[in-house]
Amino acid sequence: MTTFSPTQPVVRIKQAAMDVQDLEGLLRLSIKVKDRKLLYVFYTRIDQVFILWGVICTIIFSTAQFSTIGWTEQAIIWSILTLIGSWGTYRLAWYWVSVERKRWVVYAWMGLMIIGVIVTNWGIFGNGWSVLPHLSLLWLGLSAIGYLITGWGLRSRAFLLCGGVHLVALTLLPYVPTWQFLFSAFITAGSLFLLASFQWDMYSDSGSQNLTEQQKQFNLDQAKKRSLTL
Predict the structure, then answer these.
(1) Stretch 71-88: mean pLDDT, rounded?
(2) How far is 91 from 97, CA to CA, in rounded Å?
(3) What does the pLDDT read at residue 87?
(4) Could you give the CA distance from residue 195 to residue 186 in angstroms, rounded to a whole number?
(5) Which of 96, 103, 156, 181 is the most exposed place for a label (fewest CB within 10 A)?
(6) 194 Cβ partners below 8 Å, 6+ apart?
(7) Confidence at residue 157, expressed as pLDDT on a 0 to 100 scale
(8) Is the dihedral of CA 82, 146, 227, 39 positive or negative?
(9) CB 193 within 8 A of CB 54
(10) Which residues contact 60 (CB under 8 A, 6 or more apart)?
(11) Predicted confidence (pLDDT) per residue in 155-201, tens digit
(12) Which residues, including other chains, have CB under 8 Å from residue 68's CB and lie 6 or more apart?
């Protein structure tokens, strides 16, 4: 049984030496003025999943906090955005989770999102009005469960920490009664954007059956390069 690696920082600045599964679909953004580089960032497909959901969480909770749109219309918008996020997660993350042999993590998150949508829509369309005052509690709780599952599956302290932050946030909701949705946006989207911006710890399966021998050796070489800068 694999364990958490105490030698890896929980989070750190991203390293350029990445594995095959991280290089697949890598998005690079660079801003230059003449020969001077002002900005250079890169996002793996997993990072892109975090950004996608960060944007979705921002839209959903900000709409709930500030918009005058009715609950019925909001529920429809939220359901559509959740479907888009789930489809995007599958498209972007599938190769990575296949190599890491962690497809079940995607299934777990999708299951949690389905539960959230069903409960939310029941509260709005099914006369379960008692649910509405507790939507932030619901989604922060589901997110906390997802992060804890992911942290255990990837052997990542960073994801466990995110789960802990969401659990603490649950206890703070009574102190921001009129700003619960905005507070939830800050916690959920903020965590996602931070995860997309930094490199987090995890146990990587470099011997995956989904890689060729050359790719496995490439990953081992990249791991050695990363270890030199720990």
Answers:
(1) 94
(2) 11
(3) 95
(4) 14
(5) 103
(6) 11
(7) 95
(8) positive
(9) yes
(10) 77, 78, 81, 185
(11) 999 999 999 999 999 999 999 999 999 999 999 999 999 999 999 99
(12) none
Distance (Å, rounded) from C-alpha 56 to C-alpha 79?
11
Six-digit token string for 72:
């019925």
* DSSP for residue 102: -
Burial class (CB within 10 angstroms; exposed 0-12, middle 13-18, buried 19+) of 10: middle
Kindly give the residue spans of alpha helices, DSSP state H, lying in the chain.
20-23, 45-66, 71-99, 103-125, 135-154, 157-172, 180-197, 213-227
* pLDDT level of residue 230 (50, 70, 90 thresholds): low
Tell me whether residue 173 is exposed, middle or buried, using C-beta atoms within 10 angstroms of its C-beta: 0 to 12, 13 to 18, 19 or more.
middle
pTM > 0.85:
yes
Torsion angles phi and psi, residue 89, rounded to 5: -60, -45
Amino acid in the structure at residue 212:
T
Place of tokens 């995890």: 202
Residue type, 24: E
> How many residues does the structure list for the chain?
230
The pair of three-digit structure tokens given for residue 117, joined into one six-digit string: 């949508």
